[in-house]
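Hey everyone, long-time lurker, first post.

I ran two proteins through the pipeline my lab uses and got sequence/structure pairs for each. Pasting them in order. The first:
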Amino acid sequence: AILCTEVFEHIPYPIETIKEFSRLLKQGGTLILTAPNACLRHMDPYFFYTGFSDNWYKKILGENGFEVTLVDPVGDYYSSLAVELARTISVSSLLVKVLLAPAFLYYYSKQKTPESVNTNCGGYHVVAKKK
């Protein structure tokens, strides 16, 4: 059996939900989660949960009968900056576009590093097996 959620940050009680997922899944079942680590505007119109780090998933899932098989970060510091520059450029004057374009190209072309992921990734894709 597979249980999958892509709106985990919208659940009011995430730890209790993990406990319920553990209850629902049979041994060997797969849990697939994805949620942002920190996403500001996404939280409109209410403030949903944030800060689901790789360590949070490992700790909470491990405490609730799961073996984490994958924690895959989405994005990093550089891609976050590139996205924000692109948003600013898209609504700005021609002068701002010209001034910010080099910075956008710089951050867009940067390669992920462990440090850039740990500094700021957009979230995680997580796969865990019920023990």
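...and the second, right after it:
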Amino acid sequence: MNPSRPQSQSLLPPVRAATGYSVVLPPGWRKIPLRTGTEKAIRAVVREAFTRLPRDAPPDKVGPHRLQLERTLTRMVRDARGKGGIDLYLPAGPVYGAPLAASFIVSELSLGPADPASIAAMLEAEDDAMKAVTMDGADGLRAERTAAPAPEHDVDFASRRVDYVLPVPGRGGRWLAVAFSTLGGGSPEDDIAILLAELFDAVMSTFRWGWEQR
């Protein structure tokens, strides 16, 4: 190489790298981080879930339901971590032995070094439910479907599911998946299930990336 010859330089600005994300939650919804502070967050959700019970509620009646909720949340956390989850979101309202009606999990995925647009096009071609979306400047995909029960995975009821898959800006090969699930009022096709899915879409409309400092 001739040292006197100027080297060409790219005129394209460097792509900013995202370091996180944020969403605005509806009233009553809470976040359980899955990497640190998980146990503390579970205790806070359980405590809040039972704050509206009458003060004179007999402990021998409340205790078993409280323990059951703790076990349910612990199982949800374990399952979410097994899928690469980093955060779990759910409503923390009055719970008295009833299953949680809805939740969503944010997970990290690695889909290889291919161009994000090519990966998105491939996923959209393979799944008719996938539709193109843009979330805070990232071109990703959204899918909505009904999932059948899967007893082998401890899923006893059908559910309505909405999934978003987004490439993480500036992090080649890294993607963020946001997976929502609800039992509705007992059927994934009922009005409650549809309303909750719309609520989740409203939450995702507030999605924003967090950026590295320069």
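Reply from user beta_strand_b:
Welcome! Quick read of the second one: Residues 11 and 110 are 29 Å apart (CA to CA). The two ends are 33 Å apart (CA to CA).
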